[in-house]
Every structure is written in C-alpha cells, then in structure tokens.
Amino acid sequence: MQLRYQYRVYPTPGQALRARRVFGCKRVVWNDALSRIAPVKASNKLLGSPHTRLAEGPYLRVPKNPDLSKELITAAKKTKERSWLSDAPVGVLQQTLRDLDKAWAAHEDSKTGKRKGPKVAPPRFKSKKDNRQSARFTASDRFKILDGGRLRLPKIGDVRVKWTRDLPSAPTSLTLIKDRSGRYWVSFVVETEPANDILPPVDRDQGIDLGLTRFAVLADGSHIASPKFLRRAEKRLKKRQRELSRKKKGSANREKARIKFARAHAAVADARRNFHHQWSHKLTSENQAVFAETLNARGLARGRLAKSVRDAGWAQFLSFCQYKATRRGRTFIKVARYFPSSQICSACGHRDGPKPLNVRTWACSEPTCGTVHDRDWNAGKNVRHQGRRILTAAKTPPTPEPGARRRQRHR
Prior knowledge:
The chain is of the alpha+beta class. Helix content is 40%, strand content 17%.
C-alpha cells in the first residue's frame, strides 16, 4: 500500500531562491512540451494567455516522451536560451513530461468514456504567477535524509524539516510544494504493509447523517457539533481582503498583503482538515463498519447555502473516512443518494413522504406506530439500517437460478 507523509520544511533564503528556479525550469519544460503536443487555435494569442484555446478532437502527431526529453531537456541545455535548465535536476524535468502524458491520457479517456466520473479538462499552460508551485523528485535524483534530520535535495541544498512522525519505510519519491501562503512542504511517498495498520475487530457499527446546523448526527443518538471555521474567521478575512484591495497592483506591499490574506485562509483550511482527521480517526477506530449517505456536495455548493456547504467540507471528511477504513481493515459504505433517509420511520419502516427542511421533528403517521422522531437522528438510523442491508447482500453468495446447474452440465 502506498501512503503519503507530509512535513513542513524551512528553507533558507538561498535555498528558497534555488527552489523557485527549479519550479521555473519545470514550468518551462511543461509549457514547451504542451505547445508541441497540442495544436493551438488563434496563433496570434500569446502562449499561455487565458484567451488561448486548444483545438478539440484528436491532436496531431504526439511526440513520445524520449523524443521530447532529448529535444526539450538534453538539447535545450546546450542552447543559450535554455542553458539555465541545468539549475533543476534531470529527474524533475523528466517527471514533468511523464505527468503531462498522464494528464493528456486522463483527458482523452474522459472524452471517450473510458475514465469514469466528471469530465477532465485538457492540461493548461502554467504561469509563473501561479501562487502554488511544486516539483517531484524521483529516486534517480538521489535525494537523501541525513543523520541530523535534514533533507538533501539536489540543486537546492540541505533543507531543515519539522519531523512530526517517523517514516515507516524509505520513500520512493517526494514532492516539494510551495503553497499560496508562501509555506514550503515536502510530501513523501512510502510503501507500507497493509497488515501493520489493521486494527482488531469490534462489534460496533455507525450510521452518519451529515448536516449544517450539526455537522453530523450519529445513529447511536450522539452528534458532532459544527465548528463553522469559515464563519468564525469571516471578520478577520474581511479585514485582510480590504487591506489587499487597497494596495497598488504589482507593488511589493500588495504581495505582502496577499500573503497575509492567503495565510488567513490557510489557517481556516488547516483547522477544518484537522477536525476531519480527528473525527474520521475516531469513527473508523471505534466501529467495524461506518455507513454514510452520498451527498451531491458539488450541486449543493452552487445553491443559496454554498458558503455553509463549503465550510462543512463533507467531501473531504468522507474521503478521510474511506481511506482510513481501508487502511485499518474496517468497512466504509456509502448509501445511495436517492435513498429517502428522512422519509422513513426507523421504528416501523413506514415511508411518510417528503418534508420541508424547516420540519425538524415529526411523528410517524402509521396508526400502530406514532413514534416521534428527530429528523437527523432518524436519518442516521435509517442510513445504518440501509448500510447493514448492503453489507449483508455483499457477503451473501448469489443464489443460482433454477436449472442453472443442469444447463452447466449439458454444456
């Protein structure tokens, strides 16, 4: 199993300058390769301009990666215009071409239907004004973790790392990242044995009903309060936004204000991510199976509750639950989106029909039942019941059709 371990790094000013050179070399190789792969409409537009559009349909002759590597890296270094490509490790530049090839393959598979999920846009030209930069170092670059805890990156130097936990094995690759707030991170890819993380089985399961007033209501009657990180930080974010809007475009003071604004948003995102990690860890550790409803978070984020939906971060929380359950030998099941969890009485199973959102409690209309339900708690119990049915159906072998064995014998 492959896992990622991310740590904060603190480069010196000289190391940060060399890192930016590596990011720039990678960007130029990407743009050079993309200009040769994709025929560009409106040739009078500047390369990389937001008005430039790629031609639809199959692109023309696609050079192979070895040919592009010889032309855009090996030969380009010998020219006067691209001699500074030597400031970046060769492995980083070659990995850039491989990443571009994967991006094109994902776009083509998305158009033909071979790749499931939402459509993938074609790769775009990168700009030096992008606030987030990254570069991937492979084993051929010979990066090394030194005895003193520093990380040796070729062409950059020995960078100080804040080690918050030990790596389970030697990393196969790493990615150096500079985020929008100017912070530097390093992300290691390591191989681990799945058996090392599997927890002993427990006789518990849990159903989750996600919401906005309360982040989640669980089937056992407990709930997770909604922290509303973005709402609580709105006053500080507005102040930083006003400071940024008053600075002259292109000035050094505007860049300082932009970094302060980005750091304020990063603090909100970090707090939300930590909250999701804590609760996904607790749920997958204490329960053998976790069941949750499938939400159309992207569609809900386009409505009148868009800010609250994005502040909750349901999709990130469910993805954390899913990968942690897989890693620990637990079961995570998403109940279908169309399942009417808020319309069914969890006591007798009677379907009582749809209800407006302002109805938070209701009584079952079945004469023999009449149970009074909390809307969210009832939905959490129904999600758990449906998840148990799905889990049971997955474990039960299919019943052969009558005469199937006889037909098999005659073949």
